[in-house]
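pasting input
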Amino acid sequence: MSEKTTPEPQAPGGTTPEPQTPGGTTKEAVASDVALDTAGGQMPPSAVPAATQLHGGDREGSVMHKIFTGNAMVSVLSVLLAIVLGGILMAVTNPKVAAAAGYFFAQPGDLLTEVIRPYTALVQGSIFNWAGADLSAQLYPITETFTVATPLICAGLGVALAFRAGLFNIGAQGQIIFGALFGAYAGFAWHLPIGLHLLVVIVAGLVGGAVWGGVVGLLKARTGAHEVIVTIMLNYIANFLLLFLLTTPAFQRKGSTNPISPFLDPSALFPELLGPQFRLHAGFLAAILATVFVWWLLNRSTIGFEFRAVGANPSAARTAGINVARSTILVMAIAGALAGLAGIAQVSGTEKYLSGGVAASIGFDAITVALLGRSTPWGTFFAGLLFGAFRAGGVAMQAQTQTPIDIVLVIQSLIVLFIAAPPLVRAIFGLNPRKKKTTTSGTAGTHAGGVKSGAAA
Amino acid sequence: MSATTHSPASTPGTGKGGATAPGGKPGTPAASELVSWKAGVGLGLLAVLGTVLFGFLANTKSAGFRIAEARDPNASSAAAWITLAVALAAAAYVGYRWISQRRDGGPVDRWIPATTIAAVVVLGLAALGVAQVEKVTVPSMVFGWICSVLLLALAGYTIWLTLQRRRTPGWVGGLFAVVFLVGFMIWIVAGGRDPEPSISLGGLMAGAVTLAVPLVFGSLSGVLCERAGVVNIAIEGQLLLGAFSAAVVATITGNVYVGLVSAAIAGALVSLVLAVVSIKYLVNQIIVGVVLNVLISGLTSFLFSTLLTADPEHLNKPGRLQPVDIPFLADIPIIGPILFRQSLVGYLMYIAVIVVYVGLFHTKWGLRVRAVGEHPQAADTVGINVNRTRFINVLMGGAIAGIGGSFFTLVSVDAFSKDMSGGRGYIALAAMIFGRWNPIGAFLAALLFGFADNLQSIITIIGSPVPSQFMAMLPYALTVIAVAGLVGRSRPPAAGGIPYVKG
């Protein structure tokens, strides 16, 4: 990193090769630093390699510091804060709570019960249902969480990967649609032997997403069109194209007036992992594989290194001989392919047919997932699981307590808002970060941010 | 012809267009400013498409455009006569200015070409009104071929100019767009189900303006923020909270005007969060915008599901802002209903466009705002408080978008419903970009998008050869083309999206 992105070879030989050699802990630290800063909107100054920001103090101390004042703590606190705020919102709008508040001093327990009840239902609907009759009923919620999380993880990885290359990919929605469109067509129109069919469907979906994402990269690289605008517009175009195609004979189900496609062939479906009583399918395994792939791509491959270099500082990357245009197109194509995988998980796993609402709001949730995961592969994975749990639990909560599922949107967006603004959370909780460290690296970060953060997340 | 001769050569040869190119009508696609193949190839492809659609695929029916739908023929006729006179005078005066400035050899004022065209269009409409023409019927086959030939000729001219290494003058692109639009309208109307399909031109235009109202407010909000260097993706959220707040407050107070004010406050509230988090805490503005949209969507949907549906009588039954006729002027055919038969929000739209335009480009304040958006360091050096300017602009933008949101609940429908802004905040964003970050351009782009939206619903009724989904796609496709620089250049303020830290 330092060697390629530093214009002058001023770094001493000892530190230069370190980030590039595979397996060094420094490289991990660099990667995570880049990720953290990219997600937070404060670009790491590429002229100052991320490693130099860590040099003061030994590693052990800085790890402990990071836990208490750093971003991990901020993430946890953000989630807590958002949940508390969501609880307050539910409390003030709930007439029963108002009634309970009336005799608050007589029986304070009632008020608390009313506030906690929706969250209890949420946990029951997303992790473990202790009221279930048998083990499978008790475990059903967690499998549901995994199922809902699968497309979120895949699309979130796509968004996160683009973030790391300094691109704000809002187009996951359209890329999911294209992936689903291509994959579904291969799934119901072609009849291939078992095994091969699923493979073809997956490849078709990846290609579909990659095309729709690659267009963005191409426009960005060739004409300088801002990817945020292009992706927003392409989302709409993809959506209308899907709605149109679902009214054509090629895609519409025979004998149906609704705009839905035929069911995919059984050979084109992801196998169910835990039997037919659960919805969990092998797409979840694909999501795990995708996470591993993105981790490998970013941290172990030359291409991924180039992506990160371009994300950190495109000018320096160009100076160092990296083909920025190629990187931009490639990263958007891969990001699109990952979102396309999410589309496949939908049509080939969860829904089993193509409809106008195939992408639901996954593409937009994926942005929040990637932000919560701080654009690291595994961070995105767990963020996807968390939001999957919110989604799955939200449905149960709505059914049991009549609390609208929209509250989940509020909590999700609050989490991301707080996470994006660590100083805000620290101020709320009175956590004082290291004074000296923050003043030096903080100002360096904001200076560089002043120049570059528009390009990156 | 060598490269050195191209710039002088273009002045005498295509002097009219060459001098007017920068001042071409904002919003309508002007030709490329560089001598590149983009314009030639782009127009060529469109011309071929036009020829196939309007020429080869034309049917034998005729296309009818109904003009007169006056409630009071006498008043309408009188209004038409007066409009005719005024438009004639204006066209003559502006045309005279144009010719005399050309003869003096000096540059032509930027506003003149657009104004002349507008005056001529008004003149034509007034003449139709005076002649009491009720319906214009054109045979689609003949006109389709005429349009196709014109398109091909214009594209050929552009390609020839490019071969000569000369710039394509602005009027070529403008004329191309107009001819394409005319051909398209004739083709699409003639494709209707009826044996003699026709649409109401007045209804089409008036509906287009109505649909454009929230888009215009939203795009003005975007212009105000982005000109100061803050990217405002949260327009959608501002519209939505404005709509929500207008509905609830107007119902509680029983006064729609209080609702209107509260909508502005609600929009500014969304802006306040955007401003604090992105300007004070330096969080990426795009992230904040996206997250705010999700937050507002969730919040309003939640409150709608819990509170508003439980008691709509007392929370979600705002009155309506009725359209107000300006006497006499409202009777001018076609133009009257557009300009002078609007609700209060509609009139506010026109005022807002003018105020924002004059404010940004003809006042000291506007100069400062644009300096902050283009080069904050330089602005800071001369003593402008960058972050305060941004803060104020973002708040103002939010208030304007909030008023736009009130259109949904006080004018369009008289109740709030979930996610009722329906992505129009993003179209407003597109309009702002298509209008090149200029209030007038954004206004015209929003009108175009409103026009496409309305045309889509009208042709769904009369039946059409184009699937409605493709019509709905049009604004977005146009925006992609615009930002990709295929028609003219679309350049955002230089400092957009970058937080400013003094030091």
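fyi Confidence is low (pLDDT under 50) at residues 1-34 of chain B.
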